[in-house]
Design a protein that fits this description.
Number of strands: 15
Strand content: 15-25%
Radius of gyration: 36 Å
Shape: elongated
Largest sheet: 6 strands, mixed
Catalytic activity: 2 GTP = 3',3'-c-di-GMP + 2 diphosphate
Organism: Hyphomonas polymorpha PS728
Enzyme class: transferase
InterPro entries: Diguanylate_Cyclase, GAF, GAF-like_dom_sf, GGDEF_dom, Nucleotide_cyclase, Rev_trsase/Diguanyl_cyclase
Protein name: diguanylate cyclase
Strand order of the largest sheet: 9-10-8-13-14-15
């Protein structure tokens, strides 16, 4: 809401020069500047008649006004010992008349001073002094609103970041940063229902690492974790952002491929399998490679339950293992529809895994 009504702007510094210009017109002062404490000066500006080259020097000169708790007016600063030697008085912009009113929040916390400056001596009537105090009150309110808005927006940002972090913890596998089992099934269910609703194809892959227990037994669990992490990263880099990858348990993973027919799923499965063969690992026990086995399926006509496809893909995965591993197998809804996808490469380089 604050951004919608431009109470908070996208730029770093909130520009309230229009308020300073109104004060200049109302009080007849050629220079008006909100001299702020450094904390507020970094993000709030209200000035009129001040060149960029003189802005900082006037901020420094006007800082002395913060010593006053009430509105004041100095007719001729050259005649006041406190101001007479100030660079802004002896040189450009040749301050002569100097007036100010405190800027503060409702609890009295001081922001700075709204200052009027002229190069000619002059006085303020009581009505003009009251008007200066009113203009200072407007600037103070503007600072309060903007400050509250900045904190509110930051609180919202912090809350959203915390919510996102908690969400990531709830849906992400801590080792691989892929979806965890619960999140994978939840999102996969949505995808199959969407595919059914729009009559789009969808394919399911399940795969795991062949002889993974041997990797842990020979090379250690740290090496086993490295295998799981690097394999999951390889798969994540090989699929689309719209695809789902989840770690279902141990070394077993699932992939959901929305808007993907079975032929494209078969090509991807063999490409992933061959890429996995190309991964090399080292441990204190020596170098080794891995292979993976894959099961492929897709929902049958009218199926809206992803679990049925995942079960078929799981059966196809274990069929691939029984038939020699390092292979992909497709299974349709009927058992007799099972199809083995032959390997294009020999299996001789599977290594110690």
């Amino acid at each position: 809401m604050l951004q919608r009504y431009r109470i908070l702007r996208s730029e770093d510094v909130h520009n309230a020069d229009h308020i300073a210009r109104a004060a200049s017109l109302a009080l007849g002062a050629p220079i008006v500047i909100a001299a702020l404490n450094e904390r507020y000066r970094n993000w709030y500006r209200a000035a009129h008649g001040v060149s960029e080259g003189k802005f900082d020097s006037l901020q420094t000169f006007c800082a002395s006004a913060n010593l006053s708790d009430e509105a004041f007016a100095v007719t001729d600063a050259r005649l006041e010992s406190y101001f007479a030697r100030e660079p802004a008085v002896t040189g450009s912009p040749n301050v002569v008349f100097f007036a100010g009113a405190p800027l503060s929040d409702p609890d009295g916390k001081r922001f700075g001073t709204l200052c009027l400056i002229d190069s000619q001596p002059r006085t303020l009537t009581l009505e003009q002094l009251e008007l200066l105090k009113s203009m200072a009150h407007i600037v103070s309110q503007d600072i309060c609103v903007c400050s509250a808005g900045r904190y509110a927006v930051q609180d919202l940002i912090d809350a959203e970041e915390e919510r996102c972090a908690l969400y990531d913890l709830a849906v992400t596998d801590p080792l691989t940063k892929t979806l965890n089992r619960r999140a994978f099934f939840r999102f996969a269910e949505r995808e199959v229902q969407r595919a059914h609703r729009h009559n789009h194809p969808i394919s399911v892959l399940m795969f795991d690492i062949d002889h993974f227990k041997r990797v842990n037994d020979i090379h250690g669990h740290a090496a086993g974790d490295e295998v799981i992490v690097r394999l999951s990263r390889l798969v994540a880099d090989s699929i689309r952002d719209t695809d789902l990858l989840g770690r279902l348990g141990g070394e077993e993973f699932g992939v959901i491929l929305p808007e993907t027919g079975i032929e494209a799923a078969l090509l991807l499965a063999n490409r992933l399998r061959e890429s996995a063969r190309g991964l090399s690992f080292k441990s204190a026990e020596g170098s080794f490679n891995i292979t993976i086995s894959m099961g492929i399926s897709q929902p049958e006509m009218g199926e809206t339950d992803i679990n049925l496809s995942l079960e078929r893909a799981d059966k196809a995965l274990y069929r691939a293992k029984r038939l020699g591993r390092d292979r992909a197998e497709l299974m349709s809804a009927s058992p007799e529809g099972a199809q083995i996808i032959p390997l294009p490469l020999p299996r001789g380089a599977a290594g110690a895994a």
